[in-house]
């Protein structure tokens, strides 16, 4: 299976991954342990990681034996790219020549995920291909039919999860897994099974998290290098998080919410626990959280000016940049033809849409007979756009939650928070969502992509808060929030922040 996605590990990271994992495995070095070591990269490409391992092993051999030695059972590589493997072999020979050694690597041209591997390894190292299911359905369809795929497949997963799971399966007891991947899986819902496997079968001993891409040709990516051992020792985990270095206990890395991996510095942990302890609700108890519209064809349904001829169907359509802190833009920048299954089309609109029928009919929900060809692909329940609502950008560097009681239609990069019943006070919750306390929580426990917070449905619903049982307790914050909606003021925001800090029993000003 050709993946067509090759990004090779930068040399400095390859050397670091090789050195750290070898140092850990060979903590109590003996000649026998060194000669018997078996290392594999099951998606080796042209060999940046394997060659870094080879050079480190040769250096260690000189220290142990007084001369450079090499064992041909040391290094094994699997890959589907014959050209990359040819390059690896040539580079390996150049390295052997450099150290005056004769030898070969064990290289096999195949898809390692489909390969039955009875051999067990001491170290599995890798930078596997990153492929989302959405744009690679055929790749996923094939592996889902195998026993291995049936065991580990999860909807919306990334293909590299399979390589981590395969790596764990072929590790010896007490063996080491070191992988470079994107860091999204640390909290992604689709990676819950992967995290549970890592949690139950071993433990991390080092995690390097980056809010940027370490690859010059993969801008927008955010990476993690993790070191994991297939055994339990309860040793502390060394974390390097964007330059901040600290150690955390094994018991503190997996969160309560779907075993999400939380990297929380020790000096922040106490405040996080206080927020948990002093909360009496989660947002999902009080609010519905819904995503905005997916039209499936914005060029057909969305206009940048009001069209009189479609006036009966046009709704004000906003972009995520129109959501601010406490407020939203008053004037819609766009208009959308809002059509759901209940809509009745007049001749004028039908005539317009018929020009695009062939294009609209190719949309997934039409093909699957879930909607009419002329509907918006995901129109949602229209009530969420009409009733009082809190709105937030799907992705934002800070916690800017807006509020409006006016019709407010937008695309899927905006989320809508509406009250589950008439007893819920949205103003009080709005004040909390815009507070420093909430930001503090979500920055460590919520979902992130690089430095951006990601306000998806699940992490929002799981957020804890204190919600008063008595109406009179709500009044102070409700009054302040009403003022913020009318005219934002930093002084008022400080009072809101102070209230929630006191409620949670924390003072986060020192850490801002």
* Alpha-carbon Rg, integer: 27 Å
Helix tally?
Answer: 20
What top-tier CATH class of the largest domain fits best? Alpha Beta
The number of distinct β-strands equals 22
Task: State the helicity in percent bands.
Answer: 25-40%
**What's the story with the biggest beta sheet?**
9 strands, mixed
Write a structural description.
With 512 residues, the chain is of the alpha/beta class. It folds into 2 domains: 11-263, Rossmann fold, CATH 3.40.50.150; 285-511, no CATH class. Helix content is 36%, strand content 19%. It contains 20 helices and 22 strands. The strands form 5 sheets. The chain has a 9-stranded mixed beta sheet with strand order 3-2-1-4-5-7-6-8-9, sandwiched between helices. Strands 11-19-15-17 form a 4-stranded antiparallel beta sheet. α3 (48-65) links the parallel β1 and β2. The chain is globular. It starts with 10 loop residues before the first helix and ends in an 8-residue tail after the last helix.
What is this structure's SSE topology?
Blueprint: H1 11-25, H2 31-36, E1 39-41, H3 48-65, E2 75-79, H4 82-98, E3 106-109, E4 121-126, H5 137-144, H6 147-152, H7 160-169, E5 171-182, H8 192-201, E6 203-209, E7 223-229, E8 237-241, E9 244-248, H9 266-278, E10 281-282, H10 283-286, E11 287-291, H11 298-301, E12 302-303, E13 314-318, E14 334-337, H12 347-354, H13 357-360, H14 364-367, H15 383-386, E15 389-393, E16 395-396, E17 401-404, E18 409-410, E19 414-419, H16 426-433, H17 436-445, E20 447-449, E21 452-454, H18 457-461, E22 464-465, H19 471-486, H20 490-504
Parallel strand pairs: 1-2, 1-4, 2-3, 4-5, 6-8, 13-18
Antiparallel strand pairs: 5-7, 6-7, 8-9, 10-22, 11-19, 12-14, 13-14, 15-17, 15-19, 16-21, 20-21
């Amino acid at each position: 299976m050709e993946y067509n996605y090759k990004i090779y590990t930068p040399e400095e990271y390859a050397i670091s991954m090789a050195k750290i994992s070898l140092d850990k495995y060979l903590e109590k070095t003996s000649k026998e342990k060194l000669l018997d070591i078996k290392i594999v990269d099951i998606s080796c490409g042209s060999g940046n990681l394997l060659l870094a391992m080879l050079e480190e092993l040769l250096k260690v051999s000189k220290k142990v034996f007084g001369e450079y030695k090499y064992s041909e059972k040391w290094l094994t590589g699997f890959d589907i790219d014959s050209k990359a493997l040819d390059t690896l072999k040539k580079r390996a020979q150049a390295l052997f020549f450099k150290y005056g050694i004769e030898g070969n690597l064990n290289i096999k041209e195949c898809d390692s995920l489909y390969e039955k591997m009875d051999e067990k390894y001491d170290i599995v190292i890798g930078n596997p291909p990153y492929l989302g299911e959405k744009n690679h359905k055929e790749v996923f369809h094939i592996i889902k039919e195998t026993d291995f795929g049936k065991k580990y497949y999860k909807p919306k997963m990334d293909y590299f999860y399979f390589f981590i799971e395969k790596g764990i399966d072929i590790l010896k007891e007490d063996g080491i897994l070191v992988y470079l991947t994107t860091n999204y899986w640390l909290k992604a819902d689709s990676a819950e099974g992967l995290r549970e496997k890592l949690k139950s079968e071993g433990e991390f001993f080092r995690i390097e998290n980056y809010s940027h891409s370490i690859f010059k040709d993969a801008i927008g990516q955010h990476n993690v290098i993790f070191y994991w051992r297939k055994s339990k020792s309860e040793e502390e985990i060394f974390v390097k998080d964007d330059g901040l270095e600290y150690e955390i206990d094994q018991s503190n890395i997996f969160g309560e919410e779907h075993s999400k991996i939380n990297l929380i510095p020790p000096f922040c942990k106490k405040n996080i626990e206080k927020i948990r302890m002093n909360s009496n609700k989660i947002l999902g108890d009080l609010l519905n959280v819904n995503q905005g519209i997916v039209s499936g064809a914005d060029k057909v349904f969305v206009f940048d000016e009001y069209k009189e001829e479609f006036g009966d169907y046009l709704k004000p359509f906003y972009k995520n940049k129109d959501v601010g802190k406490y407020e939203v833009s008053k004037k819609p920048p766009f208009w959308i033809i809002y059509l759901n299954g209940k809509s009745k089309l007049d001749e004028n609109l039908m005539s317009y849409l018929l020009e695009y029928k062939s294009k609209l009919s190719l949309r997934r929900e039409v093909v699957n007979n879930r909607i009419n060809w002329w509907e918006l692909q995901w129109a949602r329940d229209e009530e969420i756009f009409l009733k009082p609502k809190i709105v937030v950008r799907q992705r934002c560097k800070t916690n800017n939650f807006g509020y409006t009681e006016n019709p407010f239609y937008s695309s899927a990069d905006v989320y809508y928070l509406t009250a589950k019943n008439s007893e819920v006070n949205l103003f009080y919750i709005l004040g909390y969502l815009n507070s420093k306390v909430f930001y503090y929580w979500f920055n460590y426990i919520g979902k992130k992509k690089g430095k951006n917070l990601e306000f998806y449905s699940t992490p929002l619903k799981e957020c804890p808060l204190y919600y008063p049982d008595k109406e009179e307790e709500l009044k102070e914050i409700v009054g302040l929030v009403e003022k913020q909606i009318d005219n934002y003021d930093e002084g008022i925001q400080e009072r809101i922040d102070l209230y929630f800090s006191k409620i949670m029993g924390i003072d986060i000003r020192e850490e801002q």
